[in-house]
Design goal:
The structure is a homodimer of 106-residue chains. Chain A is an alpha+beta fold. The first copy, chain A, has a domain at 10-59 and 76-97: Alpha-Beta Plaits (2-Layer Sandwich). The first copy, chain A, is 34% helix and 41% strand. Chain A starts with 9 loop residues before the first strand and ends with a strand. At the A-B interface, strand 1, strand 2, strand 3 and strand 4 of A face strand 1, strand 2, strand 3 and strand 4 of B.
């Protein structure tokens, strides 16, 4: 679903990735990371899709919240597994969301 | 592919959407919009994936470049078609990319 984020300003982390063909533990860990992120202070939501590339955007109240999530112990292990096993290439972009607008069909 | 963006700061537009089941003209228009965006001054790249939701992130040099793209004539028509035909729900977030880092397997 589209994340129900509050009025800006807030932060977004855009994580774009290319996968290897190693499937072991990937989906299980991805689901666990969502579960853990949702428990982090300052978490506001996330959106994710994968076709030829994967894009996951997570939303946060502050840079401090993003930093804490990056350093969460189980997440650090997942990041290491990501580099060793699951990804050939990724890019993480830390962004300040300055403005948003939307549309919803009645 | 993962967009080869320059050193931050630069801007990102995160467009998250849910589709209707109306396929007519959608893919053709989406491809045309990429072609047009690439010709816009200040365009830096884009990334896109769709599963249960679609996420398209486009990258830009400035807010001015984003505004000019939003108001591009053919793009305005596509936005209108989007609301009338292709999307049940979307959200657009305008972001300042403050920092990025990545990983690439050798």
């Amino acid at each position: 679903m589209i994340a129900a984020t509050p009025q800006p300003p807030y932060y977004a982390v855009i994580f774009t990735s290319l996968r290897t063909d190693i499937a072991a533990d990937y989906h299980q860990t991805a689901m666990r990371m969502v579960e853990l992120a949702e428990q982090q202070p300052g978490y506001l939501g996330h959106e994710s899709a994968r076709e030829s590339i994967g894009i996951t955007v997570s939303y946060w109240q502050s840079l401090e919240a993003i930093k804490n999530w990056k350093q969460q112990t189980e997440h650090l292990l997942a990041q290491q597994m990501g580099r060793e096993q699951w990804y050939t290439h990724y890019k993480t972009r830390i962004c300040l969301v300055q403005r948003d607008y939307g549309f919803e069909k009645i």
